[in-house]
What does this fold into?
Amino acid sequence: DPANALGTASVELVVHETGAPAATFSSPNPDGFYYADIPVDISVAVSDAEDTPDQLALSWTDGTGAELVLSIAPDADGEIHDSLLFAEGDHTLVLDLVDSTGKTGTASVSFSVWAANQPPTCFIVSPVDGANGELGATATFVAQLADPELAADTVTAEWRSDLDGNLGLSS
It folds into this structure.
C-alpha cells in the first residue's frame, strides 16, 4: 500500500503422501504344470490406498515387453480372473498399474508352458482278461501307468467295472 504497511495471511496445509498401487499374482504358479493347448488361469489381486480398483490403469506385457491384449478389469474387490493360451516355453507375465496420482506399481510371475498335453497310457497287469474269482473274495488290481510329461506316481488311475461301476482310485 502507499504507506508501505505490511500485511500477511497464512494457510496451514497438511500434505499426505500417497502410496503406489500394488498387485499380487495367485495364478499362474511358478511351479505349476501348464500346457500349450490348455488356457492358463490368471488370478491377480490389485489394490491402492487412494483409488478403487476400477480407477487403476492396467497394462499387460510379456517378459520381452511386448504388449498383451487382455480386456479384463478388476472386480470391486480388486480381483482379476481370466485365462489365456501361451505357446510352449518360458514366460513372464507382467502387470503395470498406474493410479490417479501417477504413482506406479508392477507385479510379475514367471512360469513354463509345456507342449500340448498328451494322454497317459495304462496297461492292466492283473487280473488278466477273462480271469475268474470267488464270489466275495478280494480282487487285487495292478496296472502300469505312464505319462509323457509327468512321473507315473503323479498320475491317478480310476478303476471301473462294466457291471459294478466305479471301483476306486489308485496312483
